Amino acid sequence: MSDAKRRALLETNAAHLAHPNVAAFLKAIAEAEGGGYDFKYGALQARRNDPWRFTDTSTHPGPGIDGRTTAAGMYQITRPTWEHHGGKLGLDDFSPRTQDLIAVEILRSLGVIDLVRAGEIAAAMPKVARTWAALPRGPGQGNHYPHQRHVSFERFLSSYLRAGGTMA
Q1: What residues act catalytically?
Q2: Can you say how many angstroms the Cα of residue 37 is from the centroid of all Cα atoms in its chain?
Q3: Domain for residue 64, yes or no?
Q4: Rounded Cα gap, residues 138 and 129, in angstroms
């Protein structure tokens, strides 16, 4: 991809990120995933001096508590996902802004960014639940990964609305 195309895609994603429904949707994902911008897999919100937090955002932090899973950051982005989407956008750090822009790129790549912007949350869930294990496939449905915990659609929707999202 050319630098001009990368810049245009980055600008498009920044505009999506500024949309209140997209910002609220990302906050609801983060709440469901239990992430923080400085979390590796295994970090806990209330734990002081958590060994699974990181401070170096110059690159993806790598594996978490189990030594294998590389899910990290606010949206529990894996290293291969960071490399793919970050590379596509010309991003090479793991700063909060990069994490946000990669999450938007994931939504865009899944083909649901317009649904999210329009507030059609239930319609977006089947696709996003394949990427984020803690998300339900839709109202009254579980997630795609039954061995992993997930939030109910009602809880996800409540988080989304509390964060300022609107419904179609």
Answers
A1: 33
A2: 11
A3: yes
A4: 8
Q: Which of 39, 29, 19, 33 is nearest to 159 (CA)?
A: 29
Count of CB atoms situated within 10 Å of the CB of 16: 22
Which of 37, 26, 13 lies closest to 160 in space, CA to CA? 26
Structure tokens at 167: 């419904």
Query: How many C-alpha atoms does 35 have within 13 Å on its Cβ side?
Result: 28
Task: Give this prediction's pTM.
Answer: 0.94
CA 123 to chain centre: 17
CB 138 within 8 A of CB 122: yes
| Bridge partners for 40 per DSSP | 72
Give the number of domains in the chain.
1
Q: Is residue 168 part of a domain?
A: no
Domain for residue 7, yes or no? yes
| Beta carbons of 29 and 128 less than 8 angstroms apart | yes
CATH number of residue 24's parent domain? 1.10.530.10
> Mean pLDDT per segment of 10 residues, for the chain of length 168 residues?
92 98 98 92 84 94 92 96 95 97 98 98 97 95 86 97 96
- For 140, the domain range is 3-162
What SS3 class is residue 77?
A: strand
* Domain presence at residue 167: no
What are the structure tokens assigned to 85, written together?
């989407």
Q: Dig out the tokens for 40 from the structure.
A: 């590796």
